[in-house]
Design a protein that fits this description.
The protein has about 270 residues and is α+β, with helices and mostly antiparallel strands. Among the domains are: about 110 residues, Beta Barrel (Ku70, Chain: A, Domain 2); about 40 residues, no CATH class. The protein is built from 6 helices and 11 strands. The strands form 3 sheets. Strands 1-2-8-11-10-9-7 form a 7-stranded mixed barrel. A two-stranded antiparallel sheet has the order 3-4.
Length: about 270
């Protein structure tokens, strides 16, 4: 089984739940290393001390903060343990939130929480309370030399945690969310809505994969066997000139028939008056 990345307790009110945290998701990629073109040797980046003019062992390494060029405040592991806040051992739930109130953009890394032995009942109690109220907890936890704010929610009959991006970590891109001064025709909106409906389906995560990684692995396998891969050129889509025509063709390709847009109430009244 995977190693726990954190051990401690979740607490809400006077209820404490001893738990272990495990990484819930991790990207899987084929990594390419840097190779010396001349001799095909992998290039390395050793821990080299230019002052002592030698490679140092991991046991010789401590942490330091550079407060001036070349000047460091040295900090050892014992000193780090002394300044550990309470959230290093206890993940206290500060409040409960409506799930719909939190934009998914604030979700960072994901973890699953498992109860320690004989802690199944309080674990199940919190799980049931979150399911019944359709809420999630917000707590703080310190790990990896950083205090995180985390969301605690139910998923597949268990507790899943997501570390939170802080507000100053969310990029503010100029122009995003701008109310563009364009007029959409009712017929265009109707066709776009129909196209969205025709392309809709239940979420099946197993259907999605990283095609680039698959092709990279195929390329590596082929080269190991002395083969080459020939990829058929992809068809390029022509730029959209007539949006209405593009929408109609898209719907036709899905086997759907365009429906006429229902006129607004004001339009119907004006037609009757005319």
């Amino acid at each position: 089984m995977a190693s726990a990345v954190w051990k401690g307790m979740i607490s809400f009110g006077l209820v404490s739940i001893p738990i272990r945290l495990y990484v819930a998701a991790r990207a899987k990629r084929t990594h390419l290393h840097q190779i010396h073109k001349k001799c095909h040797t992998r290039l390395k980046q050793p821990l080299f001390c230019p002052h002592c003019n030698r490679i140092v062992e991991r046991s010789e390494v401590i942490k330091g903060y550079e407060y001036e060029p070349g000047q460091y405040v040295l900090i050892d592991d014992d000193e780090i343990k002394k300044i550990m806040p309470p959230s290093g051992k206890t993940m206290e739930i500060l409040t409960f939130l409506e799930q719909s109130d939190v934009d998914p953009i604030y979700f960072d890394s994901s973890f699953v929480a498992l109860p320690e032995a004989h802690a199944e009942k309080p674990y199940r109690l919190l799980l049931k309370a979150l399911e019944d109220t359709k809420k999630m907890g917000l707590a703080k936890v310190t790990m990896h030399q950083r205090e995180y704010t985390v969301f605690i929610r139910t998923r597949n009959n268990g507790l899943t945690l997501h570390t939170m991006y802080y507000q100053n970590e969310i990029a503010a891109v100029e122009g995003y969310g701008k109310d563009y001064d364009v007029k959409l025709k009712p017929e265009e909106v109707k066709l776009a809505d129909q196209l969205v409906e025709s392309l809709s389906s239940p979420f099946r995560p197993e259907e999605y994969k990283d095609e680039f990684q698959e092709r990279l692995n195929e390329l590596i396998e082929a080269k190991l066997k002395g083969k080459t891969i020939t990829v058929a050129p992809e068809e390029r889509k022509a730029p959209v000139i007539d949006m209405m025509e593009a929408l109609k063709k898209s719907l036709a390709g899905r086997g759907a028939r365009p429906q006429k847009a229902t006129p607004a109430h004001g339009d119907r009244q004006r037609r009757k008056a005319g």
